[in-house]
Amino acid sequence: MASNVNPTVRRRRLGQELRRLRELKGMTAEEVAERLLVSQSKISRLENGRRSISQRDVRDLCGVYEVEDQRIVESLMQMAKDSRQQGWWHAFGDIPYSVYIGLETDAESLRVYEPQIITGLLQTRAYAEAIVQGGSPESSGQENDKQVEVRLRRQSRITADKDPLRLWVVLDEAALHRVVGSRQVMREQLEHVMELSQMPHITVQVLPFEVGAHAGINGQYSILEFADAADSSVVYIEGVTSDLYLEKPHDVQKYTVMYEHLRAQSLNVEQSRQLVERLAKDYAR
């Protein structure tokens, strides 16, 4: 395993390997939990990479699965040790969506549907500050500042000179009309979207009002894909108090098909730029 793999991805890969060993043994998560006197939910969280895993957990699981090759045990225990290292985002304290940041940091491509606002990776500082303050009116200024800094730091993935994140964004037209901050903030934000959309690895399409009911009518979601074949794609759905991560092939395929419908229903790239440019000029008046 490469030494620069971030801890979120390490946990995910370790969990996949532990699930594979359990299935080879023909055991259910419930049976493993009974053997180790722990909850079934703990086994599930360890396998899906949502919970940090200790070397002792790995040792105990390998014992249950009767893994005889000590090299495999030692390799998995090293993965557990490495997975407890901290990513750059931990310097900002408790981040509610830290699992997502870890996945986004390692992703090769990201497809986003955003019905309400300009998606985070495309936001200017002024727009991000207005969004965070409006969405968390009871949070302290310091807490809001931290959220903004994390959001702006994430944007380094699309501005990197080497292997930038391939980003495809479908924005509902409503996101362009919703005045966040002020008309000046909106003008600068839309100009920023136009500038970023000129980059070869960034595609922005607008889903116009006249489409009516559409495949994304149930709300925002993202699809993350990874360069390593060992890492399955993930659908991410952001929530207020908790987030949802879907990794089963059937679920990922369903959302992928939905996204293809959204792309087909949206204005093409040039038409989208023309609409964004026109609205930016309107905000300048």
TrEMBL record:
Q: Which SUPFAM superfamilies match?
A: lambda repressor-like DNA-binding domains (SSF47413)
Reading the lineage from the top rank, the first entry is: Bacteria
Extract the Gene3D superfamilies matched here: lambda repressor-like DNA-binding domains
**Boundaries of each HTH cro/C1-type domain copy?**
18-72
InterPro entries xrefs: Cro/C1-type_HTH, DUF5753, Lambda_DNA-bd_dom_sf
GO MF terms here are: DNA binding
Please give the SMART domains that the UniProt record associates with this protein.
HTH_XRE
Supply the name of the protein: XRE family transcriptional regulator
